[in-house]
Amino acid sequence: MAFVKDSGDEGREPVNKQASQDKGIVENLRSMSALREEMNRINAQMLHLLNERARVAVEIGEIKKRQNLPIVDEKREREIIAKMQEENQGPVTDEQVALFFGNLFQIAKELQADRR
Ligand SMILES: C=C(O[C@@H]1C=C(C(=O)O)C=C[C@H]1O)C(=O)O
């Protein structure tokens, strides 16, 4: 950043404060837009994986239906959450990992129940 020279101790004001601020805002908007594009790509990948997982859950549901087994398997859900928390490297917290997988289980169980 440019500064006015020798304007005393309290000096060190930008030559053009407004222009510097505007440049910062433009840079931030550029970064934000690039980050949102990255976020859009991740969202699309996650949607793809969500549907892939859902298709597997539906297949498991068909087997359970044929064998007259219950949809809900709490032990299996607890094991998945424990394993995912063990592998979790953050910044997502273990509590958030449990919440996220809990939502995935909910979706899987709804899809299985829809087909009973
Ligand atoms: C998919 C299953 O059905 C349910 C959903 C689970 C999941 O989404 O991972 C896990 C256990 C079950 O409560 C399963 O039994 O594996």
Nutshell version of this structure?
With 116 residues, this protein is mainly alpha-helical.
List the helices and strands and how they pair.
Layout: H1 17-66, H2 74-87, H3 94-114
Helix pairs in contact: 1-3, 2-3
Round the Cα radius of gyration to an integer and report it: 26 Å
Biggest sheet record: none
Total number of helices: 3
Shape label: elongated
Mean pLDDT: 91
Query: What is the first-to-last residue Cα distance?
Result: 67 Å
List keywords for this structure.
single chain; 116 residues; mainly alpha; 73% helix; disordered N terminus; binds the ligand C=C(O[C@@H]1C=C(C(=O)O)C=C[C@H]1O)C(=O)O; CM_dom_sf; Chorismate_II_sf; CM_II_prokaryot; Chorismate mutase
Describe this structure in words.
- Residues 26-116 form the Chorismate mutase domain.
- This is Chorismate mutase.
- GO terms for molecular function: chorismate mutase activity.
- There is one protein chain.
- The chain has 116 residues and is an all-alpha fold.
- It has three helices and no strands.
- The termini are far apart.
- It binds ligand ISJ.
- The ligand C=C(O[C@@H]1C=C(C(=O)O)C=C[C@H]1O)C(=O)O binds at residues 57, 60, 72-73, 76-77, 80, 104-105, 108-109.
